[in-house]
Design a protein that fits this description.
This protein is of the alpha/beta class and 284 residues long. It has two domains: 153 residues, Rossmann fold, CATH 3.40.50; 116 residues, no CATH class. The protein has ten helices and nine strands. β2, α2 and β3 form a beta-alpha-beta unit. α1 crosses α7, α8 crosses α10 and α9 packs across α10.
């Protein structure tokens, strides 16, 4: 019997995850009053012969019950009930944007500001996050990325590292990505833009990739960059980070930055972390 508690910040994707788990064959219940959790657990685990996977969604709407959830979870452990907690996280700026786009009200906002409600919610849920088995930051995830991560944990049963890396190429002429954690400038590398037969291609094309990576500077830079990032990640994790955006920029974001981002991502696939590659300005 696998019993999963899905919780986290409002707007971080709890409902989407529950739908994904339901599609996997999980019996799902959302926003059950906290005091009823032990009863549901007993029914599902002890009395049901047909349910072998269940998921329970809990959010800030259970505000009064959250104060009791620590005691209830401890009691469940003491009674031999095994469960896993998936905590969904996202940057406050991203959550505000999502609420504006959907025009929904935050459960704690009432007539107040959404950003204040998000920070209040973050404080209320801090103790639940500390108990989580998995922490997933959805700030930079599309639905397909979220499904891929959920599948890893609950479908493929892979060992999951709660750390999500985005390697992002961009063009300096369009501005540095505001969500960057690390920014690297590769404008010192040979520029395919000035080679007529390569100008209209991108770093996703083999000809451009080979042209850039044939440079000794490109090879040395990519190797040293990978070594530095491999060193940094465990230290970031120790400091409590659960996601990292590595931005690589050239002038227009179509040739050199795309090539280096792809080369770096190829090496980083060897690491046990979730990885995504994006090319922000490749079509500009």
């Amino acid at each position: 019997m696998r019993f999963v508690i899905v919780t986290g910040m409002s707007g971080a994707g709890r409902s989407s995850v529950l739908k994904m788990l339901e599609d996997m064959g999980y019996f799902c219940v959302d926003n059950l009053p906290v005091r009823l959790i032990p009863k549901l657990t007993k029914i599902v685990i002890e009395e049901s012969k047909t349910i072998d996977r269940a998921a329970l969604g809990i959010d800030i709407r259970n505000l009064q019950g959250l104060s009791e959830i620590g005691y209830i979870l401890d009691e469940m452990r003491a009674n031999g009930y095994k469960y896993e907690i998936l905590f969904l996280e996202a940057d406050s700026e991203v959550l505000v944007k999502r609420y504006k786009e959907t025009r929904r009200n935050h459960p704690l906002a009432l007539q107040g500001r959404v950003d204040k409600a998000i920070e209040a919610e973050r404080k209320e849920l801090a103790f639940v996050k500390e108990r989580a088995d998995y922490i997933m930051d959805t700030s930079h995830m599309l639905i397909r990325d979220l499904k891929q991560e959920v599948d890893k944990i609950f479908l493929d049963n892979e060992e999951y590292e709660s750390f999500f890396i985005t390697v992002l190429s961009f063009g300096f002429k369009y501005g540095i990505p505001v969500d960057s954690d690390l920014v690297f400038d590769v404008r010192f590398l040979p520029n395919p833009y000035y080679v007529p037969e390569l100008k209209k291609l991108t770093g996703n094309d083999r000809e451009v990739y080979d042209y850039v990576m044939d440079s000794d500077n490109a090879k040395v830079f990519e190797k040293k960059l990978y070594e530095m990032i491999r060193f940094l990640i465990p230290n970031y994790i120790a400091e409590g980070k659960n996601q990292l955006v590595i931005s690589v920029g050239c002038t227009g974001g179509r040739h050199r930055s795309v090539t280096i981002a792809n080369a770096l991502a190829k090496e980083m696939k060897k690491l046990p972390y979730s990885l995504k590659v994006e090319h922000r300005d490749i079509e500009k």
